[in-house]
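# nightly structure sweep
# worker-07 picked up a monomer target from the shared queue
# config: single-sequence mode, recycle default, output format = structure tokens
# input follows
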Amino acid sequence: MPISEADFPERFGQEAFPSLPCPSCSKGRISLVKGKFWTLEAGYSVKLKEEDAWEPDWRTERFTAFMQCAESACGESVVASGIVDAEEELDEEYGWVYASVLKPQDFYPAPRLIPIPENCPEEVQECLKTAFRLFWSDLASCVNKIRISMEALLDHLKVPRRRKTASGKIENLTLHQRIVAYAAKDAEISQSLMAIKMVGNLGSHDEGPISRDIVFNVLNLYEDALEAIFDHRKKELKRVKAALIKSKGKSAGKKKK
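# output follows
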């Protein structure tokens, strides 16, 4: 199921601290541990309260909290930290009031934004885990890390990094060229990787702001591509489908070893 802002909110109240996918196990979710949430206001922020014009949104405050996986066999612990903002909201009884809103800047280890196939190369997995952590503080670096993971993915898929030119010289292939080359094997996955690369370029070359919605789109595309590559059941069903169409329903062909 595609991920969105609803799954990984940018800001929330303490009473609405979200439950998030566990970084370690594939089944569990991490939740706020009771009594393990703290805030601290900066000293200079406290002094500002002496000003006559002081407003609640002048406050500079940070939070830290511990979360834990609910799966008894896992129980992974995660530390979360970030900013406490004061935002106006409409209260039915008191009208417009200021409320504390949490904006996380870091989770360690970071929740998995998308599932990572178990047989996915370790280098790709490590790049994605770093991207998951960067998502909360630096979207440009997050998509750039995803872009880097694709180089490792193409290595695993045995797409060459170099080629010999007509003059006999050896030249390095760009990520763009390697993705184009992979289209000969799987045009649909190649197209997905190309779309991800385009966003990754924005992150690596600082060519403009990157929204959270764009990052969610990138991750959804990447999850689909990784599943297509590493989920052997889906690959087999795709082969059977093609064989049945080709034989007009008479044969599913032989399973590849």
